[in-house]
Amino acid sequence: MKKRTLIRGFAAALALVGVPASADAHLINTTLGDFYGGVLHPLSGPEDIVPWFALAILASIQDPRNARWLLFAFPVALVGGALLSVVAPALSISPAWNLAVIVVTGLAVAAAAKLPFPIFLGLGTLIALLHGYQNGQAMTRDTDRLLFICGVGAIGYVFVTLITALAISFRQGGRDWRLIALRASGSWVAAVGVIMIGLQLRTSAAM
Fold it and tell me: With bands split at pLDDT 50, 70 and 90, how would you rate the model's confidence at 1?
């Protein structure tokens, strides 16, 4: 009898422990969710990833000093663009700007162009400002803006740094075909930009 009572008591305790309680299944319901939201938002579409990738490949072709400056300026300009979206949310920035920088960056990679330092840094800063502003517009009233903007800046730094480092390491093999492969990726980026421009013009004409 005592043994049965003990077993029932143990089973009841297990049942109580196993009763589901309130849980946050997604990080978006926690404080750090807005930081990860800022990290993931630029990765959710090609309009950010494609030019970032091309810019990192272009950085690997430049002088090391120029590439190092980009790694500093790019995340800072991303944060600046996101902050600008908070201060001036109604700016009308044409999508053509984003598409144009995709094509220009892709063509520069395809040509393996070593750009003058001000032009190279200006191109990287322009891309970051545009994308920082666009990503900042995704914030809502409930968004912790500081965490979201920090997330955008963090992923920008990590992405561009890693791709640039990988591209430099890839080129260090010393074989000509490796540079040709990187240049070919630039031509694909430019082609994607041209296609996106065509789709944009088609959509505008349909409206």
Answer: low
Distances (CA, A) of 69 to 14, 77, 98, 157, 188: 59, 12, 22, 12, 26
Give the span between the Cα atoms of 186 and 195, in whole angstroms.
14
Task: Give the amino acid at 148.
Answer: F
Q: What tokens does 123 get?
A: 């191109």
Rounded-to-10 torsion of CA 146, 151, 153, 158: 160
CA distances from 23 to 20, 29, 39, 62, 203 (A): 8, 9, 23, 49, 43
What CA–CA distances, in Å, run from 89 to 5, 60, 140?
67, 34, 12
Using alpha carbons, list the distances in angstroms from residue 204 to 45, 137, 191, 193: 20, 22, 20, 16
Summarize pLDDT for 153-205 with one digit per residue, the tens. 999 999 999 999 999 988 887 677 888 899 999 999 998 888 887 777 777 66
Kindly state the DSSP code that residue 112 receives in the 8-state scheme.
Answer: T
24, 30 Cβ separation under 8 angstroms? yes
How far lies 94's CA from each of 99, 100, 133, 168, 200, in Å? 9, 10, 12, 33, 11
